Amino acid sequence: MKDEVEIKACRDGFGDALLELGEENSNVVALCADLTESTRVEKFAKKFPQRFIECGVAEQNMMGVAAGLALSGKIPFVASYATFSPGRNWDQLRVSVCYSKANVKIIGAHAGISVGADGATHQALEDLAITRVLPNLIVLSPCDYFETFKAVKAAASWDGPVYIRFGREKTSVFTTTETPFEIGKANILSSGNKVTIIGTGPLVYNCLQVAKEVEDCEVINVHTLKPLDVGTIMSSARKTGAVVTVEEHQIIGGLHGAIAECLAQNFPVPIEAVGVDNTFGESGKPEELLRKYGIDSKAIVNAVKN
Amino acid sequence: MTMTILELELKANEIRQDLIKMLVEAGSGHSAGPLDLADIFTALYFGDLLKYRPDDPRWEDRDRLVLSCGHTCPILYTTLIHAGILRQDELLTLRKLGSRLQGHPHFGDTPGIENTSGPLGQGMSVAVGMAIALKMNEKALPRLNRGARVYVVGSDGETQEGQTWEALMMAGNRKLDNLTYILDRNNIQIDGFTEKVQPVEPLYNKLKAFNFHVLEIDGNSMDQIIVAVKESWQIKGKPTVILANTIPGKGVDLMTGKFEWHGKPPNKDQGEEALKDLRTLGGRIIHEG
């Protein structure tokens, strides 16, 4: 862990990894629905125009085309905003991709309330719930630039469908190229005995900040929502006896849902949720929204103290 | 071995009989569409149109048959059994627990099934993706999928799905001339005749406007099906759509032209009647042989 952190967007981690994958593997192809620049597919599209498929504003078709490419041996990356993909094309994801175990990688950009000014229509707060429920699908939610880079590379090597979500904003880069990343393996970032803070996405950085203020917290980065690392989570919960979940997503169905299911089935302990509580967002600055909707560091501190 | 038109018509009749047996045993499933598609599927698999190897269903250079209107899968399954890709003893397993013949086709363990379908419109996009991949591979070194085409069979009700037009737009724009789309224009859907439920016409002009080479045929004429598919091979710079006008329930008198038979199977007695119809060619042959 670095002491001084730089600020960089997860989506750039995706764009850089995709470009590298393009050079490494001629079967990697990319599809986008009129959002090439903002999803950071642009570099790949410029370098490999023959392997880039612009679909226009037609996400349902894009997902199906990706399935057809995958069934023909390609490794397609499908990029759009998470509200549109998997938001609009969930049926295509379910039937043409997941049920067929088609080797498609779905990139849900601009996830979370921190999309900000665009408002609630563009703030994906439900994508983890609707992907986590699908059989055969891996669900990843990386925490910073480097972890996104690694998640994208790992997804390309994984044989089967993978969903990766990340936000729009530049966020703290607190992992390094050396930080381990393995699909399905949660990372304990800080050890403690009194409470376990389980975070996903860039808010994991806030969890670590809170752990500096509040004594004896354990912080776990759950970058893989599915399959959940039950072993790591349960041994921590058994040790601390209290859990706080932190995510930029609805409390229902996302990380909190996954952890609550896991604890209830194995070893119920008190659990607090930091996330969006059954409401839509609105326009505003990212930090204003995180504060108003109760998912900033202060909210994490309050949850931990409870 | 090339079959004559007469031999193909007899084969289609045999396939229709097996289709009826399959549906009676299943006790649920779709009748009218699969019956009207029997001539098209027979032509594709036995009329030297579709390239496939029964002993190697994943053969790289095979043509891909994508069924987009998944509910008509009984005709695909029956044809695959006749083609030696699925086993004869699977005929009576449709929709049963543990069977490879799912109620709607599932890509995975079932040979000859190229895609999962059921929710309409999805196969169209998958077919477009395959056609793009085949084009990419044509340019690859070493060349892959030599000369392989994609055939997609869709239904007229399916053109009410927005995704269908998203996919067709892309196929036309990308000039996918390795794609032949066979549109089963049987005029029916579950709730009634298409032009009463939600009119889809003028299909010819719509498809033309989407940059397709459009052919309109009698989809129950073996000869016309073969000629149209072969024409699609010659068209460059555009995908081809074959608007196949078919008669729902074709070959079985009690189902002919009736939308009520879109989504239900014959019971045992109706099945017997249907088989008799097919064996006697609608009563034209008096002595059943």
User: What is the second-level CATH architecture of the largest domain in chain A?
Assistant: 3-Layer(aba) Sandwich
The level 1 CATH classification of the largest domain in chain A is Alpha Beta
**Major β-sheet profile of chain B:** 5 strands, parallel
Cα(first) to Cα(last) distance of chain A is 28 Å
**Helix proportion of residues of chain A, in percent?**
25-40%
The CATH fourth-level homologous superfamily of chain B: Thiamin diphosphate (ThDP)-binding fold, Pyr/PP domains
Approximately how much beta-strand content do the residues of chain B carry? 5-15%
Key words describing this protein structure:
heterodimer; A: 306 residues; alpha/beta; Rossmann fold; 2 domains; 7-stranded mixed β-sheet; 11 helices; 22% strand; B: 289 residues; 5-stranded parallel β-sheet; two-stranded antiparallel ribbon; 10 helices; 7 strands; 39% helix; globular
Description:
The complex is a heterodimer of chains A (306) and B (289). Chain A has 11 helices and 14 strands. Chain A has 306 residues and is of the alpha/beta class. Chain A has a 7-stranded mixed β-sheet with strand order 3-2-4-5-7-6-12, with helices on both faces. In chain A, strands 9-11-10-13-14 form a 5-stranded mixed β-sheet, sandwiched between helices. The two termini of chain A are 28 Å apart. Chain A folds into 2 domains: 7-173, Thiamin diphosphate (ThDP)-binding fold, Pyr/PP domains (Rossmann fold); 187-301, Rossmann fold. Chain B is of the alpha/beta class and 289 residues long. Chain B has a single domain, classed as Thiamin diphosphate (ThDP)-binding fold, Pyr/PP domains (Rossmann fold, 3-Layer(aba) Sandwich), CATH 3.40.50. In chain B, strands 1-2-3-7-6 form a 5-stranded parallel β-sheet, with helices on both faces. In chain B, α3 packs parallel to α4 and α5 (122-139) runs parallel beside α6 (162-173). Chain A binds chain B through residues 26, 29, 50-51, 53, 55-56, 58, 60-74, 76, 91-92, 95-96, 99-102, and chain B through 66, 106-108, 114-119, 121-134, 136-137, 139-140, 144-145, 162-163, 166-167, 169-170.
